[in-house]
């Protein structure tokens, strides 16, 4: 079990992503960050903190996509996680979705559906800490912390100090 | 959890998980997000052998908000009035591919019979069976209480609940007693002795014949409907006398604790068990109960139907 990223790596990656978000959107005034629970929500909070240091505070919320998943039938029922849309909404804003790992792309597809129900943002961008490949849908990330090529029988475990007590990314399993 | 037939089918944790799910659903269905794709392609049959307004509409709108297809079946105007048995009706529904059957029936145990019979493979949800149980009503009442007393999270420890009126015929009372006790509340039943069921001492609740005495210490006052259709008027001398002893009138309204809430499962007999000013008072949550009903039923349908029924809830 090899740790691919440690605390410093994660922090630097998120900081770089924050700078890229500011650069690409010419500031942060129209930005809404939406983290996908569980870990995406913590990453969103961290990026929000960086953005505040770089420019100014940004609207931050969370988006639970459980009800929009296409694999609900295949798995045990999951408890719903909080969805918090910032006051001011997402209408006409540049929404940055934030998740920990980009894999098949199905979570993001569900998130796009969920966003479509809430309003019509000007753009939707995607930031992920890890892109591990193996996409099943035509979806890509705008901001990537690290590309980690994996084999499909491995899995990528992201630990964040807020819930896991430690910051690290490791590759688990596989042969 | 495949069926929801009785509150006894649920552990306290499962009940709380339904309430939490409903809470999350309240946030997503509040704003513009009215319809969710979660149960697209599933068929839910409302099988109603007894009249109902809010329960049927509530289940129908819960199912529709989750994008399920809904078939409404009421005994009146169907082959049941030609003498079709429950078994044949059920098998017809099975042949049509129902994923869930929401059943209300006048006979206690009808939902259990449908679930255990092997006639159908669908999930069965009890929407009221005779004088036995009405689990989703108890869940929506618990949700409403939790919503009003925000300090209550996991359990209802220390909460004083009075359930007043026709306990004998009330499936709502039975389900509520089971659930409220499971969640830790103190329940007092208030009714004339004729409207208390045999064996009520074993329910583990307090019993009072004096409404005024119970009223002043209660946080929640749940009024039950006097069920004209289930009684022959010999349970109390007159409607007026009942109203005077057990009705929530304007005098009693003023005796309520400051933050106490008034609940009623509906339909209300205004002027009998509840006066018009009590029903419309600021601390009456009767309409909140109706809107919460949709959320709780969405949560129930989600937990029973969203996933493969053989797998357990992932916590």
Describe how the helices and strands are arranged:
The complex is a heterodimer of chains A (175) and B (315).
Chain A: E1 2-5, H1 7-25, E2 31-35, H2 39-54, E3 59-62, E4 94-102, H3 106-118, E5 123-131, E6 143-147, E7 155-159, H4 161-164, E8 168-172
Parallel strand pairs in A: 2-3, 2-4, 4-5, 5-6
Antiparallel strand pairs in A: 1-8, 7-8
Chain B: H1 12-28, E1 43-48, H2 54-65, E2 69-74, H3 86-95, E3 100-105, H4 110-116, E4 123-129, H5 135-148, E5 160-164, H6 171-183, E6 186-190, E7 206-208, H7 211-215, E8 220-223, H8 239-246, H9 250-255, E9 261-263, H10 276-279, H11 286-305
3D architecture notes:
The complex is a heterodimer of chains A (175) and B (315). With 175 residues, chain A is of the alpha/beta class. Chain A has one domain (2-172): Rossmann fold (3-Layer(aba) Sandwich). In chain A, helix 1 (7-25) crosses helix 2 (39-54). Chain A has helices at residues 7-25, 39-54, 106-118, 161-164; strands at residues 2-5, 31-35, 59-62, 94-102, 123-131, 143-147, 155-159, 168-172. Chain A is built from 4 helices and 8 strands. Chain A has a 5-stranded parallel beta sheet, sandwiched between helices. A 3-stranded antiparallel beta sheet of chain A has the order 1-8-7. With 315 residues, chain B is α/β, with parallel strands linked by helices. Chain B has helices at residues 12-28, 54-65, 86-95, 110-116, 135-148, 171-183, 211-215, 239-246, 250-255, 276-279, 286-305; strands at residues 43-48, 69-74, 100-105, 123-129, 160-164, 186-190, 206-208, 220-223, 261-263. Chain B folds into 2 domains: 7-133 and 293-305, Aspartate/ornithine carbamoyltransferase (Rossmann fold, 3-Layer(aba) Sandwich); 135-289, Rossmann fold (3-Layer(aba) Sandwich). The longest helix of chain B has 20 residues, at 286-305. Residues 310-315 of chain B have low confidence and may be disordered. The radius of gyration of chain B is 19 Å and the shape is globular. A 5-stranded parallel beta sheet of chain B has the order 7-6-5-8-9. In chain B, strands 2-1-3-4 form a 4-stranded parallel beta sheet, with helices on both faces. In chain B, helix 6 (171-183) links the parallel strand 5 (160-164) and strand 6 (186-190). Chain B is built from 11 helices and 9 strands. Classes of the chains: A alpha/beta (175), B alpha/beta (315). Chain A binds chain B through residues 64, 67-68, 72-85, 113-114, 117-119, and chain B through 17, 20-21, 24-25, 27-28, 31-33, 35-38, 66, 302-303, 306-308, 311-315.
């Amino acid at each position: 079990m090899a740790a691919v990223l440690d605390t410093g790596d994660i922090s630097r990656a998120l900081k770089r992503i924050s700078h890229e978000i500011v650069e690409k959107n010419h500031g942060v005034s129209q930005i809404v960050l939406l983290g996908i629970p569980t870990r995406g929500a913590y990453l969103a909070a961290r990026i929000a903190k960086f953005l505040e240091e770089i420019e100014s505070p940004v609207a931050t919320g969370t988006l639970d996509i459980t009800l929009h998943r296409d694999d609900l039938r295949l798995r045990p029922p999951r408890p719903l996680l909080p969805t918090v849309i910032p006051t001011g909404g997402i209408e006409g804003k540049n929404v940055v979705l934030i998740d920990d790992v980009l894999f098949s792309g199905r979570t993001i597809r569900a998130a796009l559906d969920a966003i479509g129900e809430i309003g019509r943002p000007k753009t939707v961008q995607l930031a992920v800490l890890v892109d591990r490949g193996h996409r099943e849908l035509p979806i890509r990330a705008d901001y990537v912390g690290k590309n980690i090529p994996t084999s499909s029988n491995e899995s990528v475990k992201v630990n964040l100090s807020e819930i896991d007590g430690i910051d690290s990314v490791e590759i688990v399993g596989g042969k | 959890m495949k069926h929801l037939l009785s509150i006894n089918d649920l552990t306290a944790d499962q009940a709380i998980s339904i309430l939490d799910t409903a809470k999350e659903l309240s946030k997503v269905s509040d704003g513009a997000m009215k319809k969710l794709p979660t149960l697209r392609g599933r068929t839910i049959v409302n099988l109603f052998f007894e009249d109902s307004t809010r329960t049927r509409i509530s289940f129908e709108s819960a199912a529709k908000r989750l994008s399920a297809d809904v078939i409404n079946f009421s005994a009146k105007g169907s082959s049941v009035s030609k003498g079709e048995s429950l078994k044949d009706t059920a098998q017809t529904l099975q042949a049509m591919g129902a994923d869930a059957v929401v059943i209300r029936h006048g006979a206690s145990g009808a939902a259990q019979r449908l679930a255990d019979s092997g006639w159908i493979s669908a999930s069965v949800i009890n929407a009221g069976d005779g004088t036995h149980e009405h689990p989703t009503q108890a869940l929506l009442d618990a949700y409403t209480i939790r919503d009003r007393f925000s300090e209550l999270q996991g359990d209802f420890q220390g909460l004083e609940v009075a359930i007043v009126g026709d306990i004998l015929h009330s499936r709502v009372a039975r389900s509520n007693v089971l659930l409220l006790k499971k969640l830790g509340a103190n329940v007092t039943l208030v009714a004339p002795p004729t409207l208390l069921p045999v064996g009520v001492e074993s329910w583990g609740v307090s019993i009072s014949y004096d409404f005024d005495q119970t009223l002043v210490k209660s946080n929640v006052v749940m009024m039950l409907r006097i069920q004209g259709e289930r009684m022959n008027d010999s349970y109390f001398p007159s409607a007026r006398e009942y109203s005077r002893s057990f009705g929530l009138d304007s005098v009693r309204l003023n005796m309520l604790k400051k933050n106490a809430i008034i609940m009623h499962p509906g339909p209300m007999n205004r002027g009998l068990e509840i006066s018009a000013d009590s029903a419309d008072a600021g601390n009456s949550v009767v309409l909140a109960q109706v809107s919460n009903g949709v959320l709780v039923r969405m949560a129930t349908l989600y937990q029973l139907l969203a996933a493969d029924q053989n797998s357990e809830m992932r916590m």
